[in-house]
């Protein structure tokens, strides 16, 4: 701890700590923390080591993937109908991917990685404790409501961040990397996160993602045998959760009701609106499947389409980044989004377990979640993706290995 907050490390540690704490707590603070990390990385350029870190960052697969994705949005400005308004706004939304080299360079220092990931874990645990306390008292606070006791972020984001923390702890536990003195505390944090997700907060997407990630970790740990263990665990857990968790059961029932109402012509439900958005996004994609309609064009094209079809629900995005990027940037946008995700998996592969497993869970979490959400393009999740991706894969966290990731 003294080494982490040494005078030499403070210029990087404090911005990284602020950025990590901000992720589960405040979208505005995420922007502030990210800006401070970028400024700290720029200040590093006055030293030979800092310049070396930045040069190495440009050689990393994940950074290359982030820059390639951003370059596609820049290229899409050439044919968009909204270059000076929505197009520029979209480039601003995607700025974390442009800043990835500087963020990765800052995270090349182990102290910065530890500060960012430690701050993220502590803030996520705080949100879980407050959530459970408000649920037990049946008194929602901040963004919570009766039966859905989220706190600082909406339920999908709240649960997603807790799922990442829980899976990170489990990965280190399975790899035998948690010291005996910390095992009880780690087990308690894991249980608090999982209980809050499954019993107190109603984010259905993230609840499913948690179970998926836990099963995937078992497979990473045990290989082929892990597939059997994971399937057996899910076969036991799913019925138990359905009958044991009021939150899970009501969530499933709401999905059934939403689908039924959509089939009857009522799209004004959580699931129904997604079906409605996806249906019209596919129409836009068919109009320009190869190049798309251009950067930032989705909202305008969607509004014109829904007016043409006498639609009722306006929306700036289709609640799926795969559809969004295809509609705006064509097939190349989808391929580059998949490529960028793949570079994170490759970057994580360079590390030993459990850091490798945690990197893969982040990749799997976002790849799955963004099917029905805008995880890569929404600021509240897109910026954390770059921050966590860099911190998770820039090097090992706790061991005394060389600081920088291999080129």
From TrEMBL:
Record localization: Membrane
Domain O-antigen ligase-related, residue spans: 191-338
Source superkingdom: Bacteria
Residue ranges crossing the lipid bilayer per the database entry: 12-42, 62-81, 87-108, 115-137, 157-175, 187-220, 226-244, 323-345, 357-376
Cellular component, GO annotation: membrane
Signal peptide boundaries: none
Record's bilayer topology term: Multi-pass membrane protein
Molecular function GO terms recorded: ligase activity
Primary location: membrane
Entry keywords, A to Z: Ligase, Membrane, Transmembrane, Transmembrane helix
Protein name: O-antigen ligase
Lineage: Bacteria, Pseudomonadati, Pseudomonadota, Betaproteobacteria, Neisseriales
């Amino acid at each position: 701890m003294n080494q982490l907050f040494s005078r030499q490390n403070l210029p990087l540690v404090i911005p990284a700590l602020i950025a990590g704490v901000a992720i589960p707590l405040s979208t505005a603070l995420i922007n502030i923390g990210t800006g401070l990390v970028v400024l700290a990385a720029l200040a590093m350029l006055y030293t030979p080591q800092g310049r070396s870190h930045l040069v190495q960052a440009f050689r990393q697969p994940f950074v290359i993937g982030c820059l390639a994705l951003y370059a596609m949005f820049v290229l899409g400005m050439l044919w968009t109908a909204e270059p000076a308004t929505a197009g520029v706004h979209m480039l601003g939304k995607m700025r974390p991917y442009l800043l990835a080299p500087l963020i990765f360079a800052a995270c090349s220092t182990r102290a910065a990685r530890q500060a960012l990931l430690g701050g993220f874990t502590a803030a996520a645990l705080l949100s879980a404790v407050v959530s459970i306390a408000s649920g037990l008292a049946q008194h929602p606070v901040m963004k919570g409501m009766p039966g859905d006791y989220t706190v600082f972020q909406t339920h999908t984001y709240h649960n997603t961040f807790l799922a990442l923390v829980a899976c990170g702890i489990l990965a280190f536990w399975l790899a035998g990397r948690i010291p005996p003195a910390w095992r009880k505390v780690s087990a308690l944090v894991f249980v608090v996160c999982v209980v809050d997700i499954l019993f107190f907060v109603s984010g259905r997407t993230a609840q499913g993602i948690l179970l998926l990630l836990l099963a995937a970790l078992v497979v990473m740990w045990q290989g082929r045998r892990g597939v059997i263990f994971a399937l057996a665990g899910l076969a036991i857990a799913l019925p138990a959760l359905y009958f044991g968790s009021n939150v899970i059961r009501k969530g499933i029932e709401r999905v059934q009701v939403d689908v039924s109402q959509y089939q009857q012509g009522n799209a004004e439900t959580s699931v129904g609106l997604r079906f409605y958005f996806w249906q019209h996004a596919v129409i836009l994609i068919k109009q320009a499947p190869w190049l798309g309609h251009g950067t930032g064009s989705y909202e305008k094209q969607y509004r014109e389409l829904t007016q043409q079809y006498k639609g009722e629900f306006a929306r700036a995005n289709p609640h799926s980044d795969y559809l969004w990027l295809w509609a705006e940037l064509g097939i190349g946008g989808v391929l580059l989004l998949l490529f960028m995700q793949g570079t994170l998996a490759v970057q994580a592969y360079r590390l030993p377990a459990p850091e490798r497993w945690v990197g893969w869970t982040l990749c799997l979490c976002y790849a799955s979640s963004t099917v029905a959400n805008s995880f890569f393009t929404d600021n509240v999740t897109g910026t954390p993706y770059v921050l966590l991706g860099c911190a998770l894969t820039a090097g090992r966290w706790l061991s005394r290995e060389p600081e920088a990731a291999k080129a």
